[in-house]
Design brief:
Blueprint: H1 3-19, H2 22-30, H3 32-46, H4 60-67, E1 78-80, E2 83-85, H5 94-105, E3 109-110, E4 118-119, H6 121-126, H7 131-145, H8 165-174, E5 182-183, H9 184-195, H10 207-225, E6 229-238, E7 241-251, H11 253-266
Antiparallel strand pairs: 1-2, 3-4, 5-7, 6-7
Length: 267
Amino acid sequence: MSKEVEKLEKKLSVWLERYHTEKMTETARKLPVRHDMVTLLEFVRENIVIGTQCTGNMPLKMVRAVTVKFNKPPILDHKIGKHTYRLRSEENIWPLYFLHILAEVGGLLAIAPTKQWRLKRNGVRFMSIDPLYQIAFMLSVWWYQVNWIVAFPFSGMGDELPPLFNYYALEGLLSLTPAIKVPVSDFAGELIEKTGLVWRAQDISFADMFLQSSVERMIIRILNTFGAVECEYQDEQLGKSTISKLQTFKIVPFGRALLESLVTMSR
């Protein structure tokens, strides 16, 4: 076990002593993101997965084979009218690519172009540890080790977020009263103003909309994936179609505990 992982476990053990209950563990166990991560690791252990030549990503045949085992298999091919748009890259399937990022950055999988994906020692151990630890570990990897722009890959924000953006986001979330609905626009607007997040593209016609969408995708949707928040959507007309737009979110008790784990990890 590396010193970094050992240090991480020591920090989380303090948090676990406070929040480890049967209800919390069961909530973590039932989360699709936990099930899917274990599924991915088991798949790599049992199959020969050779990374693609350019990026090291999972070949399309393997993408189809592993995602069908997910808690809710994502749609890989899309039919619009009479034409079917078939899967072209692992990166187009966010539920899988998100796990890929967490597993690689978190030291669970070794991934490289033209090389076989390899389950690392920490990946083997991850599959058998407490579900609550699994969830806290995965969220901490996203919060402190991943460049969030990968969740909103538009050139308008540049290659990096403002300094300490993730810390300001955590501070803002902790200031919210659990179980109280919060308008996404209010939360995003305050965070954008406080951190100085700007849209750098030449065309700024829809800058505010893009920046708010980035906060939604990088923070709120991720927290929803981890069972930390509940989201409320509203149907809106867009041309001749109807889209479902996120309006409000609220932090649930399980989510508040996870946010506290992030505080513990920052010390």
